[in-house]
Amino acid sequence: MIDSPDVLAIDIGGTKMAAALIAADGRIERRSQVVTAPVAADAGDELWATLAALLDEVVGDTVPGGIGVGCGGPMNWAHGDVSPLNIPAWRDYPLRRRVEERFPGTTVRLHNDAIAMAVGEHWQGAGRGSRGFLGLVVSTGVGGGLVVDGKVIAGQSGNAGHIGHVVVDPNGPDCACGGRGCLEAIARGPAVVDWAVQNGWQPRSGDSDGRSLLAAATAGHEIALAAFARAGHALGVALASAAHLLELDTVAVGGGLANAGETLLGPARVAFATHTKMPFAARCEIVPAVLGGDAGLVGAAAFIHHSEQYWPGGAD
Ligand SMILES: [Zn+2]
Description:
- It contains 11 helices and 14 strands.
- The model has no long low-confidence stretch (mean pLDDT 94).
- A 5-stranded mixed beta sheet has the order 4-3-2-6-9, with helices on both faces. A 5-stranded mixed beta sheet has the order 12-11-10-13-14, with helices on both faces.
- It starts with a strand and ends in a 6-residue tail after the last helix.
- It has 316 residues and is α/β, with parallel strands linked by helices.
- It has 2 domains: 2-116 and 294-310, 2-Layer Sandwich (Nucleotidyltransferase, domain 5), CATH 3.30.420.40; 129-289, Nucleotidyltransferase, domain 5.
- A hairpin with a 5-residue loop joins strand 3 and strand 4 (28-35).
- It has helices at 44-59, 95-102, 113-124, 183-187, 189-198, 210-218, 222-246, 262-275, 279-282, 295-305, 307-310; strands at 2-3, 7-12, 16-22, 28-35, 62-63, 67-71, 75-76, 81-82, 108-112, 132-138, 142-148, 151-153, 250-254, 285-288.
- The chain binds zinc ion.
């Protein structure tokens, strides 16, 4: 076994689990991923065995200098237990302890995947150098993470940055959180597709997913364009509130729906401009995230490589 200065980064979501060795300059040295296969609700350790095999493959004969983990929430990050919404087999699952047992003596830091994504984009992507940064993921849900005044802001229980549940329409649709009119209730992928279908869009292929809606919008289909414009508008309204509250200068938008590019971001910028007239807020730019599916891995590595800035618990 060879001691390595590289960090083992792990990104766990409902569809895939990825791992990589990441150097101190942010370079990805080795990367691999597996599908998050559904297992029985009481077979959490089976899923862990799959992940452990992936980790062994990625580290090879090296001992990483530390391990950073981004995982879908909710979680109790201080205890290292996770209950990802889209992984029913893990409920209060002691993920950090499992990783620590696999790599004895190595520091393991685990946090929300939205925070990891935001940190990744701030360290190596669209948020580089920003003093007021929000990294946003718009996909099945809408999540976010904050890096303000040079430090990640995670909140007392690790839930700061939940931009998806900022209210954009008090009379809007019910949200899965139990509230009403949240950004997520309007702008999450499935809600955008549902709205298009309700308003007469008929997916040609028969599968009414976000990708075929995006294809329709790209082809100039009016209802598809209106569906993205509605989501973009909601996004712009939420971001206007966030920019005033935190004096943001950069918002990077990633996630599956962000593949719509200007179809989503154009209307977001129009709404944002309508609701931000004071210069300190109006100057904030809404840009596409640039690291794609690697943002979470890069951010998880930064929990170790740059703990003074990017680990909510602070420096070592
Ligand atoms: Zn909500």
